[in-house]
Amino acid sequence: MSTSSSLPKLPSGLAVPNTPLIAAALKYSRKHTTATTVNHCLRAAYFAVLLSRKLPAKDSEAVDLELIVYSNIMHDLGWSQDHTFISKDKRFEVDSADLARKYLEDSHYSGDWDKHRVQLMWDAIALHATPSFAQHKESEVTLAHLGVMADFFGPAFPGGAITIEEYKEIVTAFPRLEFRDQFLQIMCGLCAYKPETTYDNFVSDFGVAFGVDGKGKGKEEFEKARRATTFPHTLWHSLLACKQYE
Q: Where along the sequence do coiled-coil regions lie (predicted)?
């Protein structure tokens, strides 16, 4: 993978905004995550721009491609292995969104970002792994989410929106670099490092299926702890307990 801060135009003509902010964000992502994670984020950015050309617009306003690409590049900062960089008590998506917002606020690029634009960016990152929310939000939030999902589904993306040729072009430009294995280790690592942040989202499914080390360690203990936090064991029991006061 090239370490250049300039993002290429692909042979098909597909390109993403190559602004100074995008170059700086890419450098920041490379500093705090792995080359494998960076390539995943870049593929997501290119897939998002590709899908922005294919999917019907939600409104008449032009889509903010710089916002989408910035969000995609920064969306997995919460995967950092530096535990002084990420939180102990927030979902990785929220860590990523908070870090991306802080970077923007601390940089000299923030002058072009009003409060609404910053909030859209935060939402795009925080909701990128929650389709039941992201798909019903603004176009930028939806497209950032779909770009990430496209990197997992590839040509099997719902509706056939990604062709085999388009998929191969983007993956050739930004190779997977053993992404599958690293993704599993990151998900299970989050279950080990801050399990309470995973219980109400998809990350905990990896802890249940693969344990906290990706090889089955602690599966039963993790599942028992997660089950105790589910709504039938919390909200419903709490409602029953309130009966004595009614």
A: none
Cβ neighbours of residue 232 closer than 8 Å, sequence gap 6 or more: none
Rounded alpha-carbon distances, angstroms, from residue 126 to 1, 99, 131, 152: 27, 11, 11, 18
Amino acid identity, residue 60? S
* DSSP label of 143: H
pLDDT, tens digit, for every residue of 85-108?
A: 999 999 999 999 999 999 999 998
CA-based nearest residue to 64, from 111, 5, 117: 117
Fold of 20-177: Hypothetical protein af1432 (1.10.3210)
Residue 194 is given by DSSP the state: -
Longest dimension (CA), the chain: 69
Average confidence score pLDDT of the chain? 95
pLDDT confidence of residue 109: 85
Residues 193 and 199: their CA atoms lie apart, in Å, by 13
C-alpha span between 210 and 14 (Å, rounded): 37
Domain boundaries, the chain: 20-177, 180-245
